[in-house]
Amino acid sequence: MQQLQDVIGLLDTRQQRRPVTITLSTGAAALWLLPRLSRLQEQHRAIDVRIAASNKVLDLKAEGIDLAVRYCAESAAPPGAQRLFGERLLAVCHPSLAIASGDMAAVLRQSVLLEFDDPRRPWLHWSHMLESVGLAAVRPRSILRFNQYEQVIQAAEAAQGIALGRVALIAPLLADGRLVALRPFMAEHAANAAYWLIQSPAEPHRDVETVALWLLHEAAQLEAAMEARGADSVALAGEPTRPPHKSAPRRKR
Fold this sequence. Notes:
Number of domains: 2
Strand content: 15-25%
Helix content: 25-40%
Largest sheet: 9 strands, mixed
CATH topology of the largest domain: D-Maltodextrin-Binding Protein, domain 2
Number of helices: 9
Structural class: alpha/beta
CATH superfamily of the largest domain: Periplasmic binding protein-like II
Shape: elongated
Distance between the termini: 57 Å
Order of helices and strands: HEHHEHEEHEHEHEHEEH
Number of strands: 9
Radius of gyration: 20 Å
């Protein structure tokens, strides 16, 4: 009887516990956050988390959301936003395509390009990238466009063409060889945008602060690897490490 009461008490405690709700785009959720959530669960077993993946900008207070990961230029980041990591782009494909040597223009003419079809972000389009490397006149075999970024990467994993990889999001795929970078054909390019952590104006509870620090720690590991070792080694940022108890992240003033 005592054991049954203990179990019921534990269930009551869990039901009363408020989850930490995080909103971010579907692409960032699928490619960046979800592969890392097991580490959060290992380090903070008593914290419940709710993921509200959406490509819409949600009202944090009205929707009862604690934390948001937003992608925008620094000028568009709201006051108090904390920078997570920047944007770097790299041409990537499945290793079975065996694109290992030759002239990049010739490679592109024979290839299918996979593109994120988002008119708000032209720097993620192939036309912008090709113009920046002096290949604007090159015409690929064809272009497949998708309105969700994770679909672009899924198509690349399925060997359907060459994608513009957002390095921070595809680090695990580069690490385990599911995707390979087209170096030295196309250098890594930094875009004028970054990912920012935004906290709800509502009074946060302790678990929110803990998850916010964990997100900042994960992002700092990734950013440091991208800065120090480049895209080919960003996977090292995915190695589990113990997060600090305190942090002083950079805030948008």
